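User: Could you go from structure to sequence for me? I need the amino acid at each position, not a summary. Structure tokens:
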């Protein structure tokens, strides 16, 4: 739970240990060293048996350019952190700091007409002229148009996707425009 993660984060900050360090302690040692609730002790007991699998999955994420952003990380969006039920982890490709950028959401239906494309591009161009961050969906049609236009016109852009980040594939037409410093794709789902 989020409360358990907050307890864990606080204990790690006070002790100077990392999460990885805790995997080397037994449940008894954890209970003696920290005042963790039973749910957290049980979670470490279960996770310890899966440590290698967890390490493997984490390495896979990093090699795919995916960075997990925990709610207690400084880069986690402050406005999101304050919302009850906010995800404990956001999985990000690109620059997670962009999620905290003020900006404008540009909305469009998944499929748009040629006139709609022109309006979306012009809207993004006008916002980019003022260096305003763009947030938009990532549909294969309108989303790719909006994000590509944002990068082409020199501003930053971000998208929250409603699917697991490990299942995500960047649309072919957007690949030439993907700049990991100026673009962030995030999901609350691994």
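Assistant: Here is the amino acid at each position, in order:
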């Amino acid at each position: 739970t989020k409360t358990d993660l907050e307890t864990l984060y606080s204990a790690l900050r006070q002790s100077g240990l990392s999460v990885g360090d805790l995997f080397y302690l037994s449940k008894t040692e954890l209970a003696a060293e920290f005042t963790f609730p039973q749910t957290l002790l049980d979670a470490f007991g279960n996770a310890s048996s899966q440590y290698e699998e967890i390490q493997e999955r984490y390495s896979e994420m990093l090699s795919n350019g995916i960075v997990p952003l925990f709610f207690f990380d400084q880069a986690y969006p402050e406005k999101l952190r304050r919302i009850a039920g906010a995800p404990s982890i956001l999985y990000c490709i690109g620059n997670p700091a962009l999620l905290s950028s003020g900006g404008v959401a540009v909305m469009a239906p998944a499929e748009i007409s040629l006139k709609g494309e022109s309006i979306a591009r012009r809207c993004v161009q006008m916002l980019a002229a003022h260096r305003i961050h763009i947030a938009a969906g990532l549909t294969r049609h309108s989303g790719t148009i909006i994000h590509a236009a944002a990068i082409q016109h020199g501003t930053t852009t971000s998208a929250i996707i409603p699917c697991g980040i490990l299942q995500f594939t960047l649309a072919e037409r957007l690949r030439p425009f993907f700049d990991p410093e100026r673009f962030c794709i995030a999901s609350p789902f691994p």
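One structural detail worth keeping in mind: The helical segments are 2-15, 19-22, 27-33, 38-48, 51-63, 78-81, 114-129, 142-152.
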